[in-house]
Write a structure and sequence with these properties.
alpha/beta; TIM Barrel; 13 helices; single chain; globular; 444 residues
Length: 444
């Protein structure tokens, strides 16, 4: 058994979906699972997913059925998706819209963050009520496409602090991005190979620094989503040194893939177009070190699944590519292989980043995120010696591709258990849609 702090050999007893005893040589049970030779970890918690989302006339490939099927087969037992508030829409109505999307479909347990598209007095006034109802996390953008401006940012930060919510921040300087994109397009650089060049690390680092300063100014607790580069990590580190409450999430693609992948151009580059984009090998090394030292607290997929056909709309204009990359099914095995198996991080750090820390930050702990008496019986069993080659044709996402296709990994999830129920075995889904529970959360 592995937690964020300990590794020990024990038996665990489960009744009615909860852990009821932990010890050596517990009495026989009605049903037993022999995990000899395996590592039993708390189920993965991905607090950054986008399922059944619409951007313009494009609807993502994965809904809550296929997306959570992929999650279950990859060892993820809980997700937090983003309920996107549309202009003029009440925050409660945005949550209700996402409840309908998930109802009767989810294979794993799920909660919602609330993503704000405006920071009007009416929306800000709703924040205390939605936090009290169990949705204590908000999201804001610093890009112009979905942004609310610095004044709106400050208003949301203050409202979050007063209500006890954590504010998730997409930190990229929108003006820098827009200027760079216009410049590239004007000089004929329109192919997806230029996507990363259009979103420079400077834009992310500046926005992260500004978010940290605003957190310091307002006293808000801020969570920087999908941090991708060394300079942004340094900005978050500096903010914490000044006393700001800033935590950091990164993505598997930033830890394993580099911007060299964009050199292929065309559709292959478009399939890896996410915001922020892939960065340099030096940035990658800095992220691994940040994960090892605890300066990066969590890993989330930012799973947004578009098919190659949907990605292809940007072949002649990279700004039209719907950005986002699938990854719910492969994220844990890829980071276990590249991190734990290769000695970059300990298995305890792996558990902290994929389970315990997200549970603590977002109000799921100790029900989720650990192996303890009283906690939900959510487990993922890893075979640390098993190797396989990732085949996107065998995955459960409807995107039809995976960024890690063809990669051979060592350390593979072989059994996923959610609230005491085996829901996936050796990549095969065993559960039925709708068994996942809607979770409300209350931060301590």
């Amino acid at each position: 058994m592995v937690t964020a702090t300990d590794t020990f050999r024990v038996d665990v007893a489960v009744r009615d979906g909860r852990i009821v005893a932990i010890g050596v040589d517990l009495p026989n049970a009605d049903h037993e699972i022999d995990a000899s030779g395996l590592q039993v970890l708390p189920g993965g918690i991905d607090v950054h997913t986008h399922l059944d989302i619409q951007l313009g006339d494009q609807v993502s490939a994965d809904d809550f059925e296929s997306g959570t099927a992929a999650a279950a087969c990859g060892g993820i037992t809980t997700i937090c998706d983003y309920a996107w508030q549309q202009p003029g829409q009440r925050l409660h109505d945005a949550i209700e819209t996402w409840k309908v999307k998930a109802r009767g479909k989810a294979h794993v347990d799920y909660g919602f963050h609330v993503m704000l598209s405006e920071a009007t007095p009416e929306r800000i006034a709703e924040v205390p009520a939605i936090v009290a109802d169990g949705y204590p996390s908000l999201k804001v953008f610093m890009i112009n496409e979905f942004g609310i401006g610095d004044g709106g940012l400050l208003s949301v930060f203050e409202a979050g602090r007063a209500a006890g919510a954590v504010v998730n921040v997409h930190a990229e300087n929108g003006d820098v991005l827009d200027h760079r994109a216009r410049t590239l397009l004007a000089t004929g650089k329109r192919d997806p190979r230029y996507f990363a060049e259009s979103r420079p690390a400077l834009a992310e680092a500046e926005a992260t620094q500004r978010a940290g300063r605003y957190a310091e100014f307002t006293g808000a607790e801020v969570y920087i989503v999908h941090l991708s580069c060394a300079d942004a990590l340094e900005a978050a580190r500096a903010a914490r040194t000044r006393g700001a409450r800033v935590s950091v999430e990164t993505r598997p693609i930033y830890l394993v893939l580099s911007d060299e992948r964009y050199a292929a151009g065309g559709l292959e580059a478009a399939k890896l177009a996410g915001a922020p984009p892939l960065r340099s090998a030096a940035d990658q090394a800095a992220l691994w070190e940040g994960l090892r030292t605890g300066e990066i607290q969590t890993i989330g997929s930012d799973n947004t699944s578009w098919t190659p056909q949907q990605k292809a709309v940007g072949m002649d204009d990279f700004t039209r590519i719907p950005y986002g990359v699938p990854g719910l099914e492969t994220e844990m095995m890829v980071i276990y292989s590249e991190g734990v198996s290769k000695g970059r991080i300990s298995v305890n750090t792996f558990v902290a980043a994929f389970s315990t820390n997200p549970a603590r930050i977002f109000g799921l702990y100790p029900r989720k995120g650990t192996i303890a008496v009283g906690s939900d019986a959510d487990f993922v069993l890893f075979d640390p010696r098993l190797s396989l080659t990732i085949d996107e044709a065998r995955l459960h996402s409807r995107a039809g591709y995976d960024p890690f296709h063809g990669m051979t990994v060592t350390g593979v999830p072989v059994l996923t258990i959610s609230r005491g129920e085996v829901i996936a075995r050796e990549g095969q889904l065993l559960s039925e849609p709708g068994r996942g529970l809607h979770l409300t959360r209350h931060r301590q």
